[in-house]
């Protein structure tokens, strides 16, 4: 019996040893979750986001990879991390039976080159076999900005600009940005303006302001850029992506696309009686908080589209003066629920037991659309006033979404309102962010001719004065 037990133990041990033996057959191959790791538009001199893939051992025995290495070795622009080990070459990597490991990859493009394609391969040496996963990155040279104070200068479309840490247009200086220029922002970076900003985009070549993550996943993702800081009480204060500081004046933006920030534009305390900002023919989209956040400021806007802002499309707080004509607010937020109004008006601030009241000299919306899928108690406009200060506002010839309880009876504030049309504004496609009007839109020809004549060309340079009446919003329907 003792002999039988010994034989049985030896047999089991032999089987166990066989199961634990490394697989050494040259026919045993690894499998990979991808054959190519691709980086889409990596800025020169700035490391990429990290990509990853999996390496599988589909066999019933462990397998040992003699070496995982970059084909270009030490001259490679890529870096790899193999199962927790970072090096250009990692030796003796074992994958257990029916198991897998991760390989992480990043790339840094040489800033001394022009636009290039950077290629390499990650080689896997196993039992005399060589397998590879290819890597490819598309590099783009940029003008890199890291905290500079900017004097008067002009940016053009020759190379994109990357604001890696926040920059300031200094007092009495002017930054001019010409048509077709692309300005990318890293996370927690803003462009602060103490002097003046002039944006000269065109219909065919708008100026682009957006985050520096260019992968497809990030195209419509809000909150990618804009400076923020933590206050002493632990709260987070968020600055505008384009932030106009007190004292800034004579700012003009024409044909810009501003997207993916925390706040698109913020304006603080106006100086003098002129507008702090005149913005025309521009799109502000996919903001985590507000599209335009103006406090005690002066803003004029024409032919604007503001869409998919997580809090307000336009917030006018602590008084000021505001005039908007032919604006399309299409505030749909599929990535979050929103219980705030797209348009907010306010003229006071309370800190502890102390209140501060400011005059709202004027806030007008004409020939405009104010619509969305949220709102404060179903209202896409909110009126928040202190009676001690002036509070002058006026909506005329507008399509507005409000609740049944919202009072629009005062003609000093509301005239010729398309209130909650059953069909909504009937945009061509809110899913594709096409906020032109379809053929059955109630906003067609619903505007006032006087306001149309003040802004005779729509955002696409179509004449809105030649038919029965101007359409509401930024776009004139073309038959």
TrEMBL record:
<dbReference type="InterPro" id="IPR059226">
    <property type="entry name" value="Choice_anch_Q_dom"/>
</dbReference>
<dbReference type="InterPro" id="IPR011050">
    <property type="entry name" value="Pectin_lyase_fold/virulence"/>
</dbReference>
<protein>
    <recommendedName>
        <fullName>Right handed beta helix domain-containing protein</fullName>
    </recommendedName>
</protein>
<feature type="region of interest" description="Disordered">
    <location>
        <begin position="451"/>
        <end position="479"/>
    </location>
</feature>
């Amino acid at each position: 019996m003792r002999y039988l037990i010994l034989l049985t133990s030896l047999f089991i041990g032999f089987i166990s040893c066989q199961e634990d033996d490394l697989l050494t057959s040259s026919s045993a191959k690894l499998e990979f979750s991808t054959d190519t790791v691709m980086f889409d538009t990596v800025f020169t001199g700035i490391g990429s986001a990290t990509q990853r893939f999996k390496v599988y051992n589909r066999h019933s025995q462990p397998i040992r990879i003699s070496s995982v290495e970059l084909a270009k070795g030490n001259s490679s622009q890529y870096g790899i991390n193999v199962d927790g080990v970072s090096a250009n070459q990692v030796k003796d990597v074992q994958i257990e039976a029916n198991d897998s490991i991760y390989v992480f990859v990043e790339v840094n493009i040489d800033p001394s080159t022009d636009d290039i394609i950077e290629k390499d391969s990650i080689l896997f040496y196993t039992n005399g076999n060589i397998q590879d996963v290819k890597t490819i990155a598309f590099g783009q040279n940029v003008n890199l900005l890291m905290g500079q104070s900017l004097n008067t200068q002009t940016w053009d479309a020759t190379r994109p600009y990357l604001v890696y840490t926040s920059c300031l247009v200094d007092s009495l200086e002017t930054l001019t940005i010409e048509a077709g220029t692309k300005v990318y922002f890293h996370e927690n970076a803003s462009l602060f303006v103490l002097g003046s900003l002039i944006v000269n985009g065109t219909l065919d070549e708008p100026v682009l302001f957006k985050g520096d993550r260019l992968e497809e996943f990030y195209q419509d993702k809000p909150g990618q850029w804009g400076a923020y800081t933590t206050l002493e009480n632990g709260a987070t204060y968020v600055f505008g992506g384009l932030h106009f500081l007190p004292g800034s004046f004579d700012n003009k933006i024409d044909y810009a696309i501003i997207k993916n920030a925390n706040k698109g534009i913020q304006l603080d305390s106006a100086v003098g009686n002129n507008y702090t900002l005149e913005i025309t023919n521009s799109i502000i989209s996919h903001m985590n908080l507000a599209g335009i956040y103006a406090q005690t400021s002066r803003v004029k806007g024409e032919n604007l589209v503001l869409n998919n802002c997580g809090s307000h499309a336009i917030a006018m707080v602590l008084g000021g003066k505001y005039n908007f004509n032919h604006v399309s607010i299409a505030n749909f937020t599929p990535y979050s629920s929103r219980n705030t109004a797209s348009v907010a008006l306010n003229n006071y601030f309370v800190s502890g037991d102390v209140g501060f009241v400011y005059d709202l000299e004027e806030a007008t919306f004409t020939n405009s659309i104010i619509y969305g899928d949220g709102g404060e108690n179903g209202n896409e406009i909110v009126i928040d006033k202190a009676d001690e200060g002036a509070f002058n506002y006026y909506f005329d010839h507008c399509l507005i979404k409000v609740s049944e309880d919202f009072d629009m009876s005062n003609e000093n504030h509301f005239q010729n309102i398309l209130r909650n049309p059953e069909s909504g504004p009937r945009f061509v496609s809110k899913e594709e962010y096409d906020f032109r009007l379809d053929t059955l839109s109630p906003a067609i020809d619903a505007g006032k001719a006087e306001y149309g004549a003040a802004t005779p060309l729509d955002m696409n340079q179509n004449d809105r004065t030649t038919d029965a009446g101007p359409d509401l919003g930024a776009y004139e329907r073309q038959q």
